[in-house]
Write a structure and sequence with these properties.
Layout (H helix, E strand, L loop, with lengths): L2 H8 L8 H7 L8 H7 L10 H5 L3 H52 L18 E4 L4 E10 L4 E7 L10 E5 L4 E4 L5 H4 L2
Antiparallel strand pairs: 1-2, 2-3, 3-4, 4-5
Length: 191
């Protein structure tokens, strides 16, 4: 095999070739080869191609691709982050509703509400509780008031979750749900 054929075989961008030219130059490929002859019908000789077509991508083309990727990233990343905040919000609401259910269960047997987590079945000895856990602390669950007739509980955002527009969630013994410090409607945040 000649040097040119070896170079074409190893090149990531092989040059177009004509089967008849290959048959004429390589004695091992002499004789009728219908497959190679069929390749001749639509092939274009490398000398007929424009220099631009042989050069590859231009800087302008690469810049256009980079700009398109940047625009897509500008749209996708904030959308992804808002979904992350929303999913963490769901965990906080679920934990707060669970806390309210535990308070009501405790009240049904003791005729009073409590602000001691161990009496509600939590492992921690005192409030606030990290939600969902101490390693990933996105909200802190707290019973802010507990008397014989009423309680109030909150879920306060922590760390990266503090950027969330719904801010602090609250619930009381009447299951009245609210938000404080939010920049959106309370009803939208509890959905």
């Amino acid at each position: 095999m000649s040097h040119r054929y070896l170079q074409d075989a190893l090149s990531p961008f092989p040059r177009p070739w004509k089967a008849s030219a290959l048959l004429a130059k390589d004695p091992n490929l002499s004789g009728p080869r219908p497959f190679l002859q069929s390749l001749d019908s639509g092939s274009q000789d490398a000398s007929n191609r424009s220099p631009r077509a042989r050069a590859g991508f231009t800087l302008i083309e690469l810049m256009i691709v980079v700009a398109i990727v940047a625009v897509l990233a500008l749209i996708a990343i904030p959308t992804y982050q808002s979904y992350i905040l929303k999913s963490r919000r769901t965990v906080a609401k679920t934990s707060l509703l669970d806390l309210a259910a535990r308070e009501e269960k405790y009240y049904s047997t003791n005729n009073t509400y409590t602000n001691q987590p161990t009496k509600l079945g939590y492992i921690s000895a005192s409030f606030p509780l990290a939600v969902p856990n101490t390693a990933d602390n996105y909200y802190q669950l707290n019973v802010t008031a507990a008397t014989t007739t009423a309680f109030s509980a909150t879920a306060i955002p922590q760390g990266a979750q503090a950027k969330d527009s719904c801010a602090t969630y609250s619930i009381n013994q009447l299951s009245v749900q609210g938000n404080t410090g939010n920049t959106t409607g309370s009803s939208r945040c509890w959905q």
